[in-house]
Amino acid sequence: MASRVRLVWKRDGLYELRRQPGVIRDLERRGRAVLAAVGGEAAGYMMSSSQGARNPQGRWRVAVFTATARAMRSNARHNTLVRNFGAARG
Fold it and tell me: 60 by DSSP, 3-state: which?
């Protein structure tokens, strides 16, 4: 007969897990890979990394975005960010 397992979620524990240096390092590595694939800051793209509001998740967020009008036009015409999102794999 199988025994029952009771799982207790500890929100503080999950919040702390999302802040671990290894998790942040991996997310930022993936963000830098996408940033490099789209041409980097020289092409008008930037990356930000921060933890969201604790409501209740507080998930870490890495974003690659257009920072210049030229990059915005290029992204609108060629879907540069979407086409290079696969660089975040692995």
Answer: strand
